[in-house]
Amino acid sequence: MSTTEPTVAVVGSVNLDLVARVREFPRAGETVLGSEYEEAPGGKGLNQAVGAVRRGTTALVSSVGDDPVGDRVVAWAAGHGIDVAGVHRAPGLTGRALITVAPDGENIIVVAPLANGALTPEHVAAELDRIRPDVVLAQHEISEAALRAAVEWCRASGARFVFNASPVRSVPVDVLDASDPVVVNAAEGLALLRAAEAARPVGEPGSRSAVREGGAWRPADVARRLLELSPSAVVTAGGAGAFVADAAGVEHVTTSTRVVALDTTGAGDEFAGVLVAELAGGASLHDAAGAANDAAGALVQVPRERR
Q1: Distance in angstroms (rounded) separating the CA atoms of residues 272 and 296
Q2: 2 lies in a domain?
Q3: Is 288 part of a structural domain of the chain?
Q4: What DSSP letter does each residue of 114-138 carry, written as one string?
Q5: What's the total number of domains in the chain?
Q6: What's the rounded mean pLDDT across residues 283-289?
Q7: pLDDT(215) > 80
Q8: Which of 118, 193, 262, 283 is positioned for an S-S bond with 90, CB 3.0–4.6 A?
Q9: Which helix H or strand E contains 286, and what residues bound it?
């Protein structure tokens, strides 16, 4: 790990966000007209690195295309103070995210990974060796091989690994076991629990009752159950704050001020980035989650074009 200022490395995606605002989301087979349109650098990895660098030294390990968009997003990241030496340039197009935003700030996102798929485990390991971070944050917009490389580097070096398991897809057991914490929203956390239970052999010792499709699960319940998979968990719940679970139990963290959301795009990424920066600086998980919750609450009150 680093011997000077605490350092965060974000291993993750970089995209160009294509954002359209609509009066209401289209239904299946329906076309709606947008009221506004913009393009901006994004991707979970880049967004989280921006959140982290506001609190401390942050490096980005990622892959972008050799297109003009790649030039644009790398320059934008560097302009925000992020160490971009670990950004690989791959032949082809930089990733894209198609984002639709409704008047209440909610959004629907489709990601085309493109050059993000060229992030190799060898590149991840080499860059983490160079950076020597105290905390590594990864998400699910990169390949499983790249994700595993980050986990293995943390195990070998003693660095803390934090995993934002979004977007939801199958997660290897050893990745979750190394995640301290795993960071998800309530729906993502419930999906992880369902997948884990479905993978258990029938009659396996210690298995619990089924996570049913029906019925309501409170975020606190999801956080508590995630301790079956990871040493600690943080479950975000939008305006209701976040739930932090570790060996000491489950704590509810709320924002310190009233929040009126204008655009929730990037809120989860801001939360994750600030969380790991605070952890790298020595904060407890509860205090780090409190700072992250306040930061995400502040972000959603700012129109995207002014961020």
Answers
A1: 9
A2: no
A3: yes
A4: GGGGG--HHHHHHHHHHH--SEEEE
A5: 1
A6: 97
A7: no
A8: 118
A9: helix 285-299
* Structure token digits, residue 76: 């934008």
Q: Half-sphere exposure of 268 toward its Cβ, with a 13 Å CA cutoff?
A: 24
Strands of 57-65's sheet in order across? 87-90, 57-65, 7-11, 135-139, 160-164, 182-185, 233-236, 242-246, 249-253
Domain containing 243 — which CATH number?
3.40.1190.20
Give residue 194's domain range: 7-27+34-201+212-306
Residue written as tokens 């499983």?
144
pLDDT at position 1? 54
The answer as to whether 206 is a domain residue is: no
The answer to whether position 44 is within a domain reads yes
The tokens for 202 are 């029938």
Q: What is the pLDDT of residues 37-55, one digit of tens each?
A: 999 999 999 999 999 999 9
Could you report how far apart the first and last alpha carbons of the chain are, in Å?
Answer: 32
8 Å CB contact between 8 and 276: yes
What's the half-sphere exposure (Cβ side, CA atoms, 13 Å) at 88? 24
Q: Cβ distance 80 to 90 under 8 Å?
A: no
Q: Which residues of 62-80 are buried (b: 16+ CB within 10 A; e: fewer)?
A: bbbbebebbebbbebbeee
Euclidean distance between CA atoms 57 and 130, whole angstroms: 14
The encoded tokens of residue 194 equal 């369902």
Instruction: State the sign of the Cα–Cα–Cα–Cα dihedral 218, 224, 230, 236.
Output: positive
- Tell me how far apart the alpha carbons of residues 140 and 172 are, in angstroms, rounded to a whole number: 12
* Residue 41 parent element (H or E): strand 34-42
For residue range 77-133, list pLDDT tens digits in order.
Answer: 999 999 999 999 999 999 999 999 998 878 898 999 999 999 999 999 999 999 999
